[in-house]
Write a structure and sequence with these properties.
This is Si:dkey-240h12.4. The protein is α+β, with helices and mostly antiparallel strands. The protein contains ten helices and eleven strands.
């Protein structure tokens, strides 16, 4: 549907608090709803005054992000409550997500079992599966955009954020815009070719790459990883090779690559036997390798 904007003054309904972050096109501030006292985050975005201006975001880009978030109401996707528009600014009132990045949370842990990793993967896959069921693709699913609602809890709650590059896709529609963050391969080789149709059912791409990169070195050192874990990583990475040249002819779509729904019933996530469950509960991630990866990714441009 069409993005819905309110014309009221945001300050009439919300108390504007401290700056939580800032960027080229605006800032994020802590806000509190006057009627209920509920805390939220306010994204204050500068909008271009005209087509020739370079200051601010295009209104169409903001409309697209609002449309996506208004269409994707899911427990593992950042919630959008309100959108306010003035002449030079749009304010998005979104869920206050204060737990930080998932990868930073993991890097601070002494150890991470496969069982812990599965808890996070299930939440991510459910969010991605829901997006795909609504015919949306994120196109920039990377560690920075996988957050925790609150990290000081026994079982942290995953939230996917930043839908600025997300697109609505109809089945088998041709999509030629190249987007995403290259080092995390936010798009698959299928999309890098720029001339192949994008099938929503094949879009479980950046989930496996985030997982595979985050698990880099899993087999190094004295660590045991279950066969089911490696099986899922392999199936999720179908169609990608270390020697792939983005400028070359695209690799064909692999029919072996799994959908989010298929991943959720894979034996690693949903064990078929007691032995499989025992194997994964005894396995753990190589935290030394993970911390090295997490430190390196922050220096990449």
């Amino acid at each position: 549907g069409m993005a819905v904007f309110k014309v009221e003054n945001v300050e009439d309904l919300y108390e504007i608090g401290d700056v939580l972050g800032s960027g080229h096109f605006g800032q994020v501030r802590h806000v509190r709803e006057k009627a209920t006292g509920t805390p939220w985050a306010g994204k204050f975005l500068k909008i271009r005054k005209n087509a020739t201006s370079r200051l601010g975001l295009e209104r169409k880009a903001v409309e697209r992000e609002v449309e996506v978030l208004q269409s994707l109401q899911h427990t593992n996707i950042m919630a959008l409550k309100d959108v306010f528009e003035s002449r030079a600014e749009v304010v998005l009132i979104v869920e206050l997500i204060s737990g930080g990045e998932l990868f930073d949370f993991i890097a601070e842990k002494e150890n991470l079992s496969e069982t812990d990793a599965i808890e996070f993967m299930v939440q991510i896959l459910k969010a991605v599966g829901f997006m795909h069921s609504k015919h949306f693709a994120h196109f920039d699913l990377k560690p920075e955009n996988i957050m925790l609602l609150d990290k000081v809890v026994p079982h942290p709650h995953i939230k996917l954020i930043d839908f600025g590059l997300a697109q609505r896709l109809d089945e088998a529609v041709e999509f030629k815009s190249l987007c995403g963050t290259p080092q995390y391969i936010g798009v698959s080789p299928l999309l890098l070719s720029r001339h192949r149709p994008v099938l929503v059912s094949s879009r479980v791409w950046s989930v496996p790459v985030c997982q595979a990169q985050g698990s880099a070195g899993v087999q190094q050192g004295p660590v045991s990883v279950s066969v089911d874990c490696l099986s899922l990583c392999h199936k999720l990475s179908q169609g990608w090779g270390p020697c792939f040249d983005p400028g070359s002819v695209c690799l064909p779509v692999s029919r072996d690559r799994m959908t989010a729904e298929e991943c959720l019933v894979h034996p690693w996530i949903k064990p078929l036997s007691r032995k499989q469950a025992d194997n994964r509960s005894r396995s753990s991630i190589n935290m030394k390798s993970f911390r090295r990866f997490n430190a390196r990714r922050k220096w990449k441009v």
